[in-house]
Amino acid sequence: MLPIRNNRALVAAAATALLLAAAPSAMAARGSLSGSINPNKGPIGSPINLKIGAKLDADSSDKERGTLTKIELFFPPNARTNGAKFPSCSPDQINATRSFSSCPKGSKIGGGTLRADVPAVPVFNVPGDITIFNGKGGKSVTINIEAHNPVEIFEAFPATLVKTKGRYGYHLTGNIPSSLQEINDGWFAEVSRFDTSISAKWRGTPYIESTTLCPKSLKVPIGGRFSFLRDNAPLSVTSTIACRR
């Protein structure tokens, strides 16, 4: 029978992520970022389905990947979010009942999956589900993580969403709760990958819509920065999303 943690121990889930492993050792992670938009061509104001994925690896086969403490994602500048026009659901609403029953219709904006290791158990390549809700005023998102091995996990946490200028259009920052880093005594989680998709409409308004045509380069930038527990080095990655004119 799987142990179920109560309150702090019951609550365990995190971004882009599910987290599992033995006490982390020093390392420098490697990783990659990928993304796509659908449709990848259209007039200004077109609804956009955005997909973002990441893979995280240790710098060598004999090192551990590390336990995530913070996830930052940087999104393209050629689109805007309309979260201010959507209903919202907070982490407190979800964590109070360990369900989505209190989340209003229209507040869910996306979801995805993740894979993680917990070397201390040991279990590897454990699946988890990610569910994403709009945050209050569209200035954040609520990320819920659900997993069933090696412990029951169902926990939501906030990630701020800030409009920026320059190379990127938005900056998402999610601090991983400690209960999602150490999911049981001495059991630290290591996320190996996550894949997410954002696609929602509320009363005819898309959560994401284009604000420009595809640039002449036929690509737009995305970025990620991942921080890890203790003395593990942070990881920064960049990539592009293809589009058409």
Tell me what the structure shows.
This protein has one domain. A hairpin with a 2-residue loop joins strand 10 (182-184) and strand 11 (187-188). The strands form four sheets. It has an eleven-stranded antiparallel beta sheet. The longest helix is centred in the middle third of the chain and has 7 residues, at 91-97. The protein is built from three helices and 17 strands. Residues 1-26 have low confidence and may be disordered. With 245 residues, the chain is mostly beta strands. The protein is 6% helix and 47% strand.
List keywords for this structure.
single chain; two-stranded antiparallel sheet; 47% strand; eleven-stranded antiparallel β-sheet; mainly beta; 245 residues
Helix/strand layout:
Elements: H1 7-10, E1 30-38, E2 49-57, E3 68-75, E4 79-81, H2 91-97, E5 108-118, E6 123-134, E7 140-147, E8 153-163, E9 170-175, H3 178-181, E10 182-184, E11 187-188, E12 190-198, E13 201-202, E14 205-206, E15 208-210, E16 219-228, E17 235-242
Antiparallel strand pairs: 1-2, 2-12, 3-9, 3-16, 4-15, 5-6, 5-12, 6-7, 7-8, 8-9, 10-11, 13-14, 16-17
**Helical content class:** under 10%
Helix and strand composition category:
mainly beta
For the CA atoms, what is the radius of gyration?
Answer: 18 Å
Query: What strand order characterises the main sheet?
Result: 1-2-12-5-6-7-8-9-3-16-17
Q: Give the tally of structural domains.
A: 1
Q: Helix segment count?
A: 3
**SSE string:** HEEEEHEEEEEHEEEEEEEE
Mean pLDDT: 89
Instruction: Give a short account of the largest sheet.
Output: 11 strands, antiparallel
